[in-house]
Write a structure and sequence with these properties.
297 residues, elongated, BP-dependent_transpt_permease, membrane, MetI-like
């Protein structure tokens, strides 16, 4: 039979991934968010190699220097300096790795661990599934930030302990979301037909369940990434996370709180960085979710 796609190119059937990408590209806000997200990743990976000054390099003659667009600014210090004469631009760029970069690492670990446990729990029955269900209800009743602060209080302050605490706090939401999605899929007729056909559980999970819970995983991942950025910043702001002179954005906010009237850029710039990263993450996540939904329709 002759392939009609060669005669009528417009009839070419797109793969599900191509359909999702085509739907995503039609959303201008999502595309803008994607480019900004890629920019953040590039800054996280390569920014520390390109900064003009060290994160703790002090310039005593330029204390609290205003940004370069101000009348009192200096182009050599584009975003000004803090109360110790440290370059704000260099600290913000390096801080992207400590806040945004580590948030990505935390979310990936939570995604892998939480999804694996959720899939196993959702595919199981009886006592094991019931215990997991009620245990998750207990853990999810505690806000992730509060749980992270409790763990940090036990382990001691520091960025590494903060990352461990936030990872542990973000795993239960992944387990819960995956568990509910898998449990709902297991009740559908095509799963029952696959089991009656003799398909092993691993094959059912790989070919039947995973493709149908991608939207849930994407939505949960972007939501959790925003939460991870805010949690890392909040713990740093409270002085329990990154310690000076580490330029984590939340810690920079906490250290500059007393300067909000004297040098407002030392507070607003880290705050804008946190806001920008969370906004971009939400734009990308919402764009992917809508593209997946449109592709499924």
């Amino acid at each position: 039979m002759q392939d009609k796609s060669n005669i009528y190119p417009e009839l070419k059937i797109l793969s599900p991934m191509e359909q999702t990408w085509a739907a995503y590209r039609r959303n201008p806000l999502a595309m803008a968010g994607l480019w900004c997200f890629l920019l953040l990743i590039a800054i996280t990976l390569f920014g520390p190699l390109l900064v003009p000054y060290g994160i703790d390099e002090q310039h005593p003659t330029h204390l609290l220097l205003a940004p370069s667009w101000s009348n009192n600014g200096n182009i050599d210090y584009f975003l000004g300096t803090d109360d110790l004469g440290r370059d704000m631009l260099s600290r913000l760029v390096v801080g992207a790795r400590l806040t945004f970069g580590y948030a990505l690492v935390v979310v990936v670990i939570a995604l892998v661990v939480g999804s694996a446990i959720g899939i196993l729990g959702g595919m199981s029955k009886g006592l094991k599934s019931s215990v997991l269900h009620h245990l998750l209800d207990t853990l999810l009743s505690i806000p992730s930030l509060l749980l992270a602060i409790l763990v940090v209080a036990i382990l001691g302050p520091g960025l590494f302990n903060t990352l461990i605490a936030i990872t542990l706090a973000l795993i239960p939401p992944f387990i819960r979301a995956t568990y509910n999605a898998v449990h709902a899929e297991m009740q559908k007729e095509y799963i029952t037909a696959s089991r009656l056909d003799g398909s092993p559980p691993f094959r059912i999970m790989r070919l039947a369940i995973l493709p149908n819970i991608v939207e849930t995983l994407v939505t949960q991942t972007t939501r959790t990434l925003s939460a991870a950025i805010l949690d890392i910043s909040a713990v740093g702001f409270l002085g329990l996370g990154a310690q000076s002179p580490q330029p984590e954005w939340g810690a920079m906010l906490g250290d500059s709180g007393d300067l909000i009237y004297l040098a407002p850029w030392t507070v607003t710039l880290p705050g804008i960085a946190i806001l920008f990263s969370v906004l971009v993450t939400n734009l990308v996540g919402e764009g992917i979710r809508e593209a997946l939904k449109e592709g499924n329709d």
